[in-house]
Design a protein that fits this description.
By secondary structure, this protein is of the alpha/beta class. The chain has a single domain, classed as Rossmann fold. 33% of the residues lie in helices and 16% in strands. The chain is built from eight helices and eight strands; from the N terminus they run E-E-H-E-H-E-H-E-H-H-H-E-H-E-H-E. The chain has an eight-stranded mixed sheet with strand order 1-3-2-4-5-6-7-8, sandwiched between helices. Strand 7, helix 8 and strand 8 form a beta-alpha-beta unit. The N and C termini lie far apart (40 Å). It holds the Pfam family Hydrolase_4.
């Protein structure tokens, strides 16, 4: 159950090594849910490194409510973080993909119960992006009556349009420090240009690490096992007790 009483459903994938104190709380992208095959593959790959808690965002999959496309979903991610702590994990990190990445950034910047580290994959830096064909299709889903019906056919139950514009990831990313932050973006992302990742990295004020990945496209469907492993290892190392690491910029 989220803070604002939306009933959420998801999965808890126990780690392959059965004893671990690390949990990955994973936020999926728009139109996805935890049972989609390519999402499930990512979750089970993370489970090689720790426990995984992944909830369907409101309006998606088996969860109740209606999608606000990145605003109220911070309550859903907060519920996942709280659940991971209740399950006994001492280190709780968040990983978000696309819309889930914007949620992870906003959650870490705005919520009192911050995770121990954050990874944002394929994140938008700002709202109302129409720079690509893929995002123009998304806005058709969000804004046109026939589009909203099509979104329901895709498994997304949309809420009403925003009454006021919530803080964008770009506006809150500087508040995440000193929590370790990793920004990952594919150089071939067909939804959000890599300039979004560069802008987020710059706005973080030196408190983030940036990976621009050659040949990688967008979000969960573009994740290779090796890239998931690298992200998981980075989060594990940055939250391990008594370890410090210099911030790197892999561009």
């Amino acid at each position: 159950m989220s803070h604002d009483a939306v009933r959420l459903h998801g999965v808890h994938v126990r780690s392959t090594p059965s004893v671990t104190d690390l949990a990955f709380v994973v936020g999926h992208g728009f139109t996805n849910h935890v049972r989609k095959p390519f999402v499930s593959r990512v979750l089970h790959r993370f489970a090689r490194h720790g426990g995984v808690v992944a909830l369907d965002f409101r309006g998606h999959g088996r969860s109740g409510g209606r999608s606000s496309v990145g605003d109220d979903e911070i309550h859903d991610l907060a519920a996942g973080v709280s659940l991971a702590r209740d399950l006994g994990y001492r280190r709780v990190v968040t990983v978000g993909f696309s819309m889930g990445a914007s949620v992870a950034l906003r959650h870490a910047g705005l919520h009192d119960d911050k995770p121990d580290a954050v990874a944002a994959v394929s994140a938008p830096s700002r709202w109302w992006v129409r720079d690509t064909v893929a995002m123009r299709r998304v806005h058709w889903l969000l804004e046109q009556p026939h589009g909203r019906l099509a979104a329901r056919a895709l498994g997304v139950r949309l809420g009403p349009p925003w009454r006021s514009t919530p803080e964008s990831p770009l506006e809150v990313v500087h508040r995440i420090t000193p929590t370790p932050l990793l920004i990952v973006h594919g150089e071939q992302d067909h939804y959000f240009d890599p300039a979004h990742a560069v802008a987020l990295h710059r706005a973080a004020g030196g408190g983030a690490e940036l990976w621009l990945e050659p040949g990688v496209r967008h979000a969960e469907s573009s994740m290779t096992p090796a890239l998931v492993d690298r992200i998981a290892t980075w989060l594990d190392e940055r939250t391990a007790p008594h370890t410090t690491h210099p911030t790197e910029d892999r561009r």
